[in-house]
Amino acid sequence: LLEAEAALANAPTGTGETGPKAVGVAPGAAGLNELQALRRQLDGKLAELEAACEAQRAQWPGQYIAALMQQMERFQKAGEYENWDSVNTERERFLIDRRLALEDIAAAPEPLRRLQLQHIDLLRGIGRKRAEAVRTLFDGHGAELEEWKRNLTRAGDMDLAAAVNAEVQQLKARQVYLAAVRELAPPPATTNSAAPAAVKETVIGDR
C-alpha cells in the first residue's frame, strides 16, 4: 500500500507542462469561447457604429429641406421671385424623389447650386466617416488577434493559434470591411472618356 501511494504521489499531473501541445488536437473550449466572445464584441461595436451612421443619414434630408427653406426666405425678402421659384421647384422635387444626384444640380441661381453641392458633400462625408470607423475597428480587432496568435504560437498551442489565424482570415474577407476599404481607396485617374460617367454619379438621400 505504501508503494502504491508513493507511485501516485510521483505520477505527473500535467499541471507543469511546458512543451507544445500535440498538433491535430481540437482547441480547448476555453480558447474557442474567448474567440467567440471577441467576435461578439466586434459585432456589437459594429452595430453601434452602423446605428450612429444611419441616424446621421436619417437627419440629412431634413437638413437639406431646412437649408432650402432658409434660402427661399432670403430670396423672398430680397424680392427675387425667379430665384425663390427655382429653389421652391427644387424643394418640391426633393420632397417627391427623396434623392439628390449630380444631375439634379441647378445651373442657376448660383447660391442654390452651391447649397446642393454642399449637401452632396455632407452626405458623402457621412459615408466616408463610417468607412473610416469600420476600417479602424476591424484593423484594431485584427491586430489584437494577430498578437494573440503570436503568443499562442510561442506557447506551443498550435491548434488554438490555427483557429485564431482562421478568424483573422475571415475578418479580412468580411464584405463590410472590404466595402469600407474600397470606399477609402484613392479614386482612379479619370480621362476625358470617363468624365460623363462621373457626372451621372448618384447620391441617395434616404436609404
Largest sheet: 2 strands, antiparallel
The topology string of helices and strands comes to HHHEHHHHE
- Quaternary: single chain
Q: Using only CA atoms, what is the Rg?
A: 29 Å
Question: Helical percent range?
Answer: over 70%
Average residue-wise pLDDT: 83
Strand order of the largest sheet: 1-2
Contiguous low-pLDDT stretches (5 residues minimum) are 1-25, 192-207
Secondary-structure-derived class: mainly alpha
Inertia-based shape: rod-shaped
Question: What share of residues are in beta strands?
Answer: under 5%
* Beginning-to-end CA distance, first to last residue: 79 Å
Count the beta strands.
2
Count of helix runs: 7
Structural commentary:
With 207 residues, the protein is mostly helical. It is 73% helix and 3% strand. It contains 7 helices and 2 strands; from the N terminus they run αααβααααβ. Strands 1-2 form a two-stranded antiparallel ribbon. The longest helix is centred in the N-terminal third of the chain and has 49 residues, at 29-77. Mean pLDDT is 83; it is low at 1-25 and 192-207.
